[in-house]
Amino acid sequence: MSPERSDLPGGLSSWRRTMNVVALAGAWLCAAIVILPLALIVWHLLARGVPGLNLAFFTHMPKPVGESGGGMANAIVGTLILVAIGAVIAVPIGVGAGVWLAEYGRGRFAAMVRYTADVLAGVPSIVVGVVAYGLVVVPMHRFSAMAGGVALSILMLPTIVRATEEVVLLVPRSYREAALALGAPRWRAIQEIVIPSASAGIVTAIVLAIARAAGETAPLLFTALNNRFWSLRLDQPMASLPAFIYDYAKAPYEDWNRQAWTAALTLLFVVAILSGILRLSLRRSHGGR
Amino acid sequence: MEDAEVTVDSFPTIRTALPDQRGAAPPASKPGQPPVPPRITVHDLDLWYGATQALKGVSLDIPDRSVTAIIGPSGCGKSTLLRCFNRMNDTIPNVRVKGQVSISGVDIYDSSTDVVELRRRVGMVFQRPNPFPKSIFDNVAYGLRLLGIRDRAELEGRVQQALERAALWGEVRERLNGSALQLSGGQQQRLCIARALAIEPEVLLMDEPASALDPTATARIEELVLGLKTSFTIVVVTHNMQQAARISDRTAFMLSGKLIERGETRELFTRPKEKLTEEYITGRFG
């Protein structure tokens, strides 16, 4: 298996050159393969989704079966609301826990929190949906936007916790020392120096979590359910893009199938726009007084 | 917090927390000490990092309103000693300290000492410039805001005063809202000095403040230190002996955690009493 060991430097170096080329080519290939799935998805969504794209899709409600046209205004707004509920719950808890882990997280309890977050990240989203069903839907006796938001928050939590911990640990020790040496109590050094220094990374963590949650269908199936009508009430079932994609894609109507593609394209853009807004707002808040 | 006058040429003293010790002198203990009581007194100080002893029975007096240099080869404990004066070593796990350090007559390792308050009285400048990733103004104002100063005019006045003292005002007055990270290394270090001076400390600790800077920037920092000693007690750690000779009034030489010799800078560099000191300053080791 292993190459013949040559005492001649020439033989060895030609073997190394060959291996270098092979390994480099392999690495290039792997890198290219990483791009492939996303490129395919975007290309496919554009090809199939653009034909159904028009203003009515964003401003109109879904039409009953048999009528063509209509849009998914309720599902777009619904997805935004569900993700907002999830973020309102998960961001403070997740960022708080992540900062605690980074700044104070020694000992067994911290190890337990880390382990729990890692396991939670691996729990299938449908199981998270079942948990939210038990926690919210059963006591409330109805499907609701609230239950959907809770399910999404559980999904967001581990990403935010672990990524926040990582980026807070990356804040140079010298910043903390400078603040402490000026007579800052530790909590103020963390709040006023460490967290703002890590804010770019924390926002990235939140964006990742939101992007993942916005596309989830399974945890919404028996929590927020779906809704063909306009509803902003948090204690009622709520429409969402993933739920509509799921329903419309498997429906036997060509018009619905086309709208499912457009909905998927829209979902991609909603996530992209959300993360763009978050990053922009971060950049704006930096460097000023 | 007293109100300070915001004028350029008068340096208001807000050494609030403690009565000024210079008036009420404790009895002079040993003969041969300066008549003014020292600002910092170290007595038989030991320090361990885990099982490693980094300071061994260090005793040292640091006089008020002067520059004291601590020199010695890398790892001799000079930075560790400096970080004892504002208890920055507390932030490192497994550090144990035995002995006494008094600043303005108060034992800072006493259990009743408020470390946060101590650090407001004892400012520190670090080896590498470490401005916060904020605006120039916010960097200098940070310590003031910690003190609860919110009044815009007062903040502006004190920030300007601190920047003037650190000889940086002229270079940054037009861009106080710009990021501190855009300044050059030397400017960043002077900004850090301004940040430390803004809260009017009694003592300014400098841990190799110029070692990361080029010769021009180093010269400016040294000039600055000489100007500041009329208002502050300054302790500078340096491995650069020429620098110690240029800027300090008194020098302490450390080796392997022990204080080998201390005295007037000129005296120590021209007529060292200890053989080890002589060997070090003549470049035989270190």
Structure description:
The complex is a heterodimer of chains A (289) and B (286). Chain A has a domain at 75-241 and 250-280: MetI-like (MetI-like fold, Orthogonal Bundle). Chain A has twelve helices and no strands. Chain A has helices spanning 9-49, 55-59, 73-104, 108-122, 125-140, 145-170, 173-181, 186-197, 199-214, 218-221, 241-249, 254-285. In chain A, helix 3 (73-104) packs across helix 11, helix 4 packs across helix 6 and helix 5 (125-140) packs across helix 6. With 286 residues, chain B is α/β, with parallel strands linked by helices. Chain B has one domain: P-loop containing nucleotide triphosphate hydrolases (Rossmann fold). Chain B is 31% helix and 22% strand. Chain B has helices spanning 78-84, 115-121, 136-146, 152-165, 169-172, 185-197, 215-228, 241-247, 265-270, 275-281; strands at residues 40-49, 52-62, 67-71, 95-103, 106-107, 122-125, 203-207, 233-237, 250-255, 258-264. In chain B, the strands form two sheets. Chain B has a six-stranded mixed β-sheet, sandwiched between helices. In chain B, strand 4 (95-103) and strand 5 (106-107) form a beta hairpin. Mean pLDDT of chain B is 87; it is low at 1-30. The chains are: A mainly alpha (289), B alpha/beta (286). At the A-B interface, helix 7 and helix 8 of A face helix 2, helix 3 and helix 6 of B.
